[in-house]
Amino acid sequence: MTRRTGWVFGALTSLLLASACQGPDADPEPARVGPDDEWAEVAARLTDFIEREMDQKGLPALSVALVDGDRVVWADGFGWEDPVDSIPADAATVYRVGSVSKLLTDLAVMQQVEAGVMDLDAPVARYVPDFAPENPFGGEITLRHLMAHRSGLVREPPVGNYFDDTEPTLAATVESLNGTALVYAPGTRTKYSNAAIATVGRALEATSGEPFSEALERSVLEPLGMDDSSFEPAPDVVDRLAAATMWTWDGRAFDAPTFQLGMAPAGSMYTTVLDLGRFMSMLFAGGQGPSGAVVGSATLEEMWSPQFAAEGGSGFGLGFALGDLEGERVIRHGGAIYGFATELAALPDQGLGVVAVTTLDGANVVTSRVATAALEWMMDVRSGRPLRRAPRPTVALEPVRADALEGRYGSGASAVDLREFDGRLYYEPVRGGGRYELRAWAGDTLMVDGRLSHGRRMVARADGGVEIDGEVLPRLRTGLPDPAPERFRDLLGEYGWDHNVLYVLEKDGLLHALVEWFYLYPLEERGPDHFAFPDWGLYDGEELFFRRGPDGAVTSVEAASVEFVRRDLGTVDGQTFRIDPVRPVDQLLADALAASPPAESGTFREPDLVELTTLDDGIRRDIRYAGTNNFMGAAFYQLPLAFMQRPAAAAVAAAQRALGEQGYGLLIYDAYRPWYVTKMFWDATPEDQKLFVADPSAGSRHNRGAAVDLTMYDLATGAPVETVSGYDEFSPRAFPEYPGGTSRQRWFRELLRETMEEQGFSVYEWEWWHFDYDEWREYPILNLRFEELGATAPGGL
Fold first, then answer.
1. Fewer Cβ atoms within 10 Å of its own Cβ: the N or the C terminal residue of the chain?
2. What is the per-residue pLDDT across 230-241, written as a single tens digit (0 to 9) for each?
3. In degrees rounded to 5, what are phi and psi of residue 466?
């Protein structure tokens, strides 16, 4: 049983009425509140907006609550709390709300300040005597510094950080900061820090005499009636925790991890939108909760006042981020933790607020837009004017338009790459930041509108350039990138954990770090194995140090005070990737020859297989499965030949001619593959690697003679080009959008893909070398050996 006792002031009646409509054996009705007549139009507008955003951005679930003074006036859920068991998301779904936790932590500290137990401007060491990070700047760090993100501390503690899945204690987490140095002098510059709020929570433990989670339960959650909230995974709360999803730059998706952060005060709260509605109602009541004062109104005003700012109402107060909306002050905070994205925003002078949470990693721009739209419409209602129009939707760009715009535009700090992939166009600032989808918006105007960013506008110009937010950028002619600096080569790779990989890559001659899956930063080289993040972004001003073992090989990188261990991945130095077959090859062969391909219905074209090298002298072969230089180390073909259905083969020859004009040829690894070989591959491959082999129960496009595995070679030297991974490498480096490697490697990969796509092929989603002819469905599955095709020797039929 969950502790759902006492809904937000006035919401209980709505929920009881919903429950009364159920029969005794019926599934529970989704929990929702309102809306009443005053807020019905806002709820309808938001419902349309949320459903459109969820569909466009692929959000699994989203819950929202609107607050007017002491009431939640509308709360509902969309999508699925648990898609496996078909449990819908609703107003009572539990979410992890990440950094919104900081507001509750800071509120508990302000209670102690009111009581005279804590002093915002006293050195933190008064409360945490062993807190002693290196401070080369002088001056003491205070609670005020920490709560306003002006301490100069690193973003993450070395232990108990966002990446650390060992679930250390808060004491161990804060103690680890003694091995760090301040990035900026206290009070001089805003630097967002999870480590800072972890330290605040540790100070609260010292003064309250309780573990942090118990102190928050007693001082904040219970007085506010937040019965479905906790700072630890209490069973009676997390039994309705929504399933959350991670996703990556290169197209993967996986279940979000659920480990607890060592820095719980900064981001570990579990809660519902209804409970956060209670929290906002307390704010609007000047600190009064259901059973009395939680804090005083003067305390809240101090929390909502800019700290260390000469003037203006923006920046950070104590915990709250401060801003303005049409002349009204806004208090807000976002939250991001594995698989969850939250936005809490309020107009304290009008007593209006909103909270929105979704279950897709990094989708904070969506929850922020939902919150802003809600506040604008609520202001319209409060002022008695008609509701303003909903934000204009964007639509998918036509693939031909996306392809025509691909290229580099501008130079210096303004330079951007526009990249087409799978019919979509992406905006990538050359100096780093990330990757964002462009969609059609109004007339000829495109707009950045995706999971990670929204709003930047672009218009294509008649002269071939583009105009982005009023800045004209000419189109540049670009060619093969220069080789990466040799000193970077052994630094490139992946570091860290499966749940959060740090990619170190080269781009335009600079080393870059892709961190937390989406955020790409150029690194400043400060010395051998020593780099720094830029002075913006998540890790502004922090450094990276590559560590080497006794043999000189790079073993890890300490990035922003967190150690990321180098990951074993793929192959090195051109080695062929190998698996350990589940069973001996001779047994696999006997079983495969005794089996039959799946039966198919329908009408198919008559097979007409031709050998590729007979169509163009520039096409060369390296048929890996005719020898032992392949992932299983065994020969599967008697002859090193490459057959395809005639139209597909002609398209390969056309691609060869196009590449020949640029000095490259095609090198074929495999084409038609008998079905029995596909079955051998499947039966030999361990379950956790089957992503890279075809399921024989459905047949392979190779079996139909309509797929080809290939790379390019240099016509002048005869040498194959260097790409991010080797052929048949069972690793993420094989993915067509894998972000790592060098500019040159990725350029070759993209040239091959674009050329093949122009001839009617599509790249396979997990292998950059595998291309399917678009008409593959028109051909049957075949199980003929090469000898049965009339082939007698390499080079002819």
1. N
2. 999 999 888 999
3. -135, 160
